[in-house]
Write a structure and sequence with these properties.
Blueprint (H helix, E strand, L loop, with lengths): L2 H6 L4 H16 L10 H9 L4 H10 L7 H10 L4 H16 L7 H11 L1 H6 L1 H12 L49 E8 L3 E6 L5 E4 L3 E4 L5 H12 L13 E9 L2 E8 L5 E6 L4 H7 L12 E5 L2 E6 L1 H6 L14 E4 L4 E6 L6 E5 L5 H7 L7 E11 L12 E6 L1 H5 L12 E6 L7 E4 L7 E4 L7 H7 L7
Parallel strand pairs: 6-10, 11-15
Antiparallel strand pairs: 1-2, 1-5, 3-4, 6-7, 8-9, 8-10, 11-12, 13-14, 13-15, 16-17
Helix pairs in contact: 2-3, 2-4, 2-7, 5-6, 7-9
């Protein structure tokens, strides 16, 4: 069978569909990333029962040398591929050789496939439509935003990408004075001055430690700061210099190794399950272990469940916008961290410092959204802003029209005179001022310094303006 016959044969058309997909991908992907075949191409090959290697072998049988673009172009002409498409691919290969990491998109690959073989496009129209939709969909874009161009991203979720090891909680001390001591913690008691000794002691299962010349003490459930003071009082019975004035014996109690605890992460996370972390961990630390919530999960209401009840909630925005949480929750064994679905989600675009998609809690509105977005840019237009809102089901007169535009006064919101409540799915747009100056005049033409000048003490008349422009050129 000749190459032309193979191209036109309906029996081989699905094979060529998969083959051209992978070949186009291979041609466009830089050499350093030659093994990174896009997921949609891999899925297409699996549906055809082919591997990437088999596709390469088929290319070789068809006389296509992937290492020789000129030869591959000639063979493509013999297979009947349009010259415009061949030149486009050659330009893409040329760009790859000069640009380290060109932007490659699956939609471009699919569209190239349609141009390569119109018969294939006609025969597999439904299949190609599905493939194009999959190619155009950003894997980070939830289904409710499918089809909408994502110029902005969800705020906060990128925090959990590629977290360095330094951010993971350590299993060794020191810790802050608010740390709660428990079984399996290792303590170091140091005494110096008139008496000198050092003991490394481990808290037993009953939460007790034994200190020579002092006896047995219960330490579990105590904060390190208060335990240090109680330890000083207990030791002072044997070493009076600890409490004398001035003291002749000095003491310090530190934590040298933290006990491990097992917690469970559930809800809107990519890898739910049990995790072993140090006892100094907070929910914020643990979320790093699972890559953070999915974009469908909430960053505002992370729940810590202990003993069958919600102990507290964590608002990750506190860390993102303030750098700290006033009352971090210390995790204990068998705690559950539950990520509920995202709450009210709105986007803000235009003249703000951080345009993004934000999650709002109950009672929050436009004023809070502006604060999360970093405030207004200097050239923001404050007379009005616009909300693109989804019309509730019971208010839709025409089922095909599901959105409406609402205008509000930004000045009144900024001054606190008006509270604008936002709804799930709202798109807030802010505008820019026009480039007009109220105290300027322009001069152009045959003057030495054309341009704009301030209307003031130096420029009050046309004569003044020409003088400021260094006079006429005389031409």
């Amino acid at each position: 069978m000749t190459p032309h016959a193979l191209k036109k044969s309906p029996h081989h058309r699905p094979l060529i569909t998969a083959l051209l997909l992978v070949l186009t991908s291979i041609l466009l992907v830089p050499q350093s990333r030659a093994q990174e075949v896009p997921a949609d191409v891999q899925r297409e090959l699996r549906q055809r029962g082919m591997t990437e290697e088999q596709a390469r072998e088929q290319a070789a049988r068809m006389g296509i040398d992937l290492d020789n673009p000129a030869q591959a172009a000639q063979r493509a002409r013999e297979l009947g591929i349009p010259e415009a498409t061949i030149q486009r691919l050659l330009r893409a290969v040329s760009d790859v050789e000069t640009v380290p990491e060109p932007a490659i998109t699956l939609p471009a690959i699919v569209d190239t496939l349609v141009l390569v073989d119109q018969d294939v496009a006609d025969a597999d129209a439904d299949e190609l439509a599905k493939l194009r939709q999959a190619a155009e969909r950003d894997v980070d874009t939830p289904l409710e935003d499918y089809g909408r161009e994502q110029k902005i991203k969800y705020f906060g979720y990128s925090l959990f990408e590629n977290v360095p090891q330094a951010f993971e909680p350590s299993s060794v001390g020191p810790v802050d004075d608010g740390y709660i001591v428990g079984p399996a913690d290792e303590l170091r008691l140091s005494v110096w001055g008139a008496a000198e000794f050092q003991y490394d002691i481990t808290v037993d299962r009953e939460g007790r430690v034994f200190i020579p010349n002092v006896g047995q003490l219960t330490v579990a459930g105590r904060r390190l700061e208060s335990l240090r003071q109680d330890m000083r009082n207990s030791l002072s019975r044997s070493y009076a210099g600890l409490t004398s004035d001035p003291p002749s014996v000095f003491m310090d109690l530190t934590l040298t190794r933290l006990r491990p605890v097992q917690v469970f992460v559930l809800g809107e996370v990519a890898q739910p399950g049990g995790y072993t972390v140090s006892s100094n961990s907070t929910p914020f630390n643990v979320l790093y272990s699972v890559g953070g919530p999915l974009t469908s999960g909430s960053l505002r209401s992370v729940q810590v469940v202990r003993g069958g009840r919600v102990l507290g909630t964590v608002d990750i925005y506190n860390y993102l916008l303030k750098g700290y949480d006033k009352n971090p929750i210390r995790l204990q064994s068998n705690d559950f961290i539950f990520i509920p679905p995202r709450e009210v989600t709105v986007s803000i675009e235009g003249d703000v410092y951080r345009p993004a998609i934000y999650e709002l809690r109950e009672g929050e509105g436009m004023a809070e959204l502006l604060a999360y977005a970093g405030g207004l840019l200097p050239d923001a237009y404050t007379k009005r802003f616009q909300v693109d809102r989804i019309i509730p089901f019971d208010r839709r007169r025409d089922p095909s029209i599901a959105r409406e535009l609402l205008d509000f006064s930004l000045e009144r919101v900024i001054r606190g005179e008006e509270t604008v409540t936002l709804q799930d799915g709202d798109r807030v747009n802010l505008f820019s001022i026009v480039d007009l100056v109220e105290n300027a005049v322009s001069v152009a033409g045959d003057v030495y310094q054309p341009g704009r000048y301030e209307i003031g003490a130096a420029v009050r008349t046309v004569r003044d303006l020409i003088r400021e422009a260094d006079g006429v050129t005389g031409t």
